[in-house]
Amino acid sequence: MILGPHGYYNAKPLVDFANKHQTKIITLKTARKTGVKSTVIQALKTLSTKVDRIYVTVDLDVLDISFAPGIPASTPGGMTTEELFDSLLEIGKHSKIKHIDFVCLDPSKDTPVDETVKIGAYAWMQFVTGCVLGKK
Questions:
Q1: How many structural domains comprise the chain?
Q2: What is the CA radius of gyration of the chain?
Q3: Residue 92: which CATH number?
Q4: Whole-angstrom Cα distance, residue 25 to residue 5?
């Protein structure tokens, strides 16, 4: 399942590959109609009925360029940091999440205040906080 593609930069071969392998794609525009956090919760519920563990890759390219300039392929119209952080808290709470990784953070492209690096660190902390809250 892929959640959050937006804009005009998703290569046709990648979309074709996902379609060929029956990978469900939920665009950011679609997710925002019911709320990104709600969409994540529903996606986790759906996946939980099909698998015994879930691996999450957080591609930080999903973020809007105005929030995260230190992302190699960030574009306008992407996810807000609030949407990402709320989603990661829910992901962390979920019992079937066994693995997570964060990709596409390039500190050499960041600004002098390192906002993208800070977003990456905060995103990790949101996930870990969710893990702790999920065990209560």
A1: 1
A2: 15
A3: 3.40.800.10
A4: 8
